[in-house]
Design a protein that fits this description.
Shape: globular
Strand order of the largest sheet: 2-3-1-4
Radius of gyration: 15 Å
Structural class: alpha+beta
Largest sheet: 4 strands, antiparallel
Order of helices and strands: EHEEHEHHH
Number of strands: 4
Oligomer: single chain
């Protein structure tokens, strides 16, 4: 895009349907590399990614040529296909509908990258539902509980 200059940093968060813990350590790194390729193929820069068993965090340097909704749809559709084609699971895999998208300043990037890469440690203290609701509160996003992800009971 000629004469378009931007600095857009977006954290995207989305979950496995039903919040099932289906992303296994045995294929997590390959899935992350694949998602990175999808993001880069769309012209964006992936700054951090971590796939937890039941949800995924991405931090992206976003180019303004593609709506976030289309990028998320492309990531979900293609990564879902990868999981099915590679037969990583014996069960059906789907991403839940919806996602969270949160913007950050350049000065916050180091902290957000550390936060994403340290997801296993963060989830020793709080579950995904608590984490997600805190993000919505932090960014002062109004929401209707009935339109949030399907939550499973945490043990």
């Amino acid at each position: 895009m000629a004469n378009v200059y931007s600095q857009l940093y977006i954290q995207i968060v989305f979950a496995v349907k039903g919040r099932k813990s289906l992303i296994k350590e045995s294929f997590r790194v390959e899935l992350q590399k694949y998602i990175t390729g999808v993001v880069q193929a769309k012209g964006h820069k992936l700054l951090a990614i971590y796939c937890m068993p039941d949800h995924t965090h991405l931090l992206i340097g976003l180019k303004p040529n593609l709506p976030i909704s289309e990028l998320v749809q492309d990531v979900k559709t293609s990564s879902n296909k990868l999981i099915k084609d590679k037969k990583f699971l014996q069960t059906k895999f789907e991403w839940q509908k919806g996602y969270g998208a949160f913007s950050y300043s350049k000065s916050a990037l180091d902290n957000v990258v550390k936060y994403i890469l340290n997801q296993p440690e963060h989830h020793k203290k709080r579950n995904f539902k608590e984490e997600y609701l805190l993000l919505l509160k932090k960014f002062e996003i109004e929401y209707d509980e009935k339109y949030l992800f399907e939550w499973i009971d945490e043990i």
